[in-house]
Amino acid sequence: MTRFIQLFTGVLLLAAAACASAATVEVRVTAVEGGKGTLRVAVCDRERFLKQCAYTASSPAREGENVIAVPNVPKGSWAVLVYQDENGNAELDRNLIGIPKENYGFSRDARGKFGPPGFDDAAIEVKDEVTVASVRLH
Question: How many angstroms separate the CA atoms of 83 and 42, rounded?
Answer without folding.
Answer: 9
